[in-house]
Design a protein that fits this description.
With 81 residues, this protein is an alpha+beta fold. The chain has one domain: NE0471 N-terminal domain-like. 20% of the residues lie in helices and 30% in strands. The protein contains 3 helices and 6 strands, in the order βββααβββα. The two termini are 19 Å apart.
C-alpha cells in the first residue's frame, strides 16, 4: 500500500494529497463531513489541522482519518512521470 507523504489544506474543505510514488491530487470533503467523527471537521480550525501520521495516513486530532488506498485509487490518473 502506498503512503501519503504530504497533505496541504485548501479552501472549500479540500485537501491536496501526495503519495510516496508521485501520485497526487485534490480531494473535496465538503459533502463527506457527516457522522460523529467527520462532522466536527466542519470547524475550519479543526479541518486545517490535517496532517500525515506515522503510518502515511491523513489524520486529524479528533481521530478522523482517510483511508490512503481509496485516495490513491482516485489519484492514479494524476501520476507524475
Amino acid at each position: 500500500m502506498e503512503k501519503v507523504t504530504q497533505v496541504k489544506v485548501l479552501d472549500g474543505y479540500r485537501l491536496e494529497v501526495s503519495f510516496d510514488d508521485g501520485v497526487h491530487g485534490v480531494v473535496s470533503l465538503s459533502d463527506r463531513l457527516f457522522g460523529p467523527v467527520f462532522e466536527p471537521l466542519k470547524d475550519l480550525k479543526l479541518f486545517a489541522q490535517a496532517r500525515v501520521d506515522e503510518f502515511g495516513v491523513v489524520a486529524w486530532p479528533n481521530g478522523a482519518d482517510l483511508a490512503p488506498d481509496a485516495l490513491y485509487e482516485s489519484f492514479q490518473t494524476s501520476k507524475v512521470n
